[in-house]
Amino acid sequence: MEVLSATSNGAIPEPEKRQKKREIFLTVRILPDGDTVKVRGREAWALNELIRAGSKGVTPLESPGPRWSAYVFDLRGFGIRIETTNEPHGGPFQGTHARYRLISELEIIDGNMEGVR
User: Fold this and answer.
1) pLDDT tens digits for 100-116?
2) Is the confidence at residue 3, as pLDDT, over 80?
3) Alpha-carbon gap, residue 16 to 13, rounded angstroms
4) How far apart are CA 84 and CA 41, in angstroms?
5) Cα Rg for the chain, rounded, in angstroms?
6) Which of 14, 42, 79, 87 is 20 to 30 A from 64 in CA distance terms?
7) Is residue 9 assigned to a domain?
């Protein structure tokens, strides 16, 4: 914890201002003649992962994110088509997991995904 002491004039100095967070976003157009949508934050990250994965798609096991199903739900709300298939997995907690594949053809118009992985 930082202790603030009074200056010579008795005023307590202001703490350093927080650095403004850089906005993560992707602006895409749904082809062939669909809407232009801008997605931000985790939804932009998830869409970027889907684009990078191509036809293989992505699973939460391969690209961990806390709420993949929620991101896909939100992206679908923008009109972006995403296919979900269930795949079995083994191990001590065997069961199934989702694989998400981007079905919509998209044109990337703008974005700030620098340094995001």
Assistant:
1) 999 999 999 999 987 77
2) no
3) 9
4) 22
5) 21
6) 79
7) no
DSSP state of 63: S
Residue 14 lies in a domain: no
Whole-structure pTM value: 0.78
Q: Which two tokens stand for residue 92?
A: 């001590």
Residue 49 placed within a domain: yes
Count of domains forming the chain = 1
pLDDT for res 47: 97
Per-residue model confidence as pLDDT tens digits over 23-48: 899 999 999 998 999 999 999 999 99
Are residues 100 and 32 in contact, defined by beta-carbon separation less than 8 angstroms? no
Q: Which residue from 17, 37, 35 is spatially nearest to 26, judged by alpha carbons?
A: 37
Q: How many CB atoms lie within 10 A of CB 34?
A: 17
Per the structure, the complete domain to which residue 79 belongs is given by 25-112
- Report yes or no on 91 lying in a domain: yes
End-to-end CA distance of the chain: 32
Cis peptide before 32 (omega within 30 of 0): yes
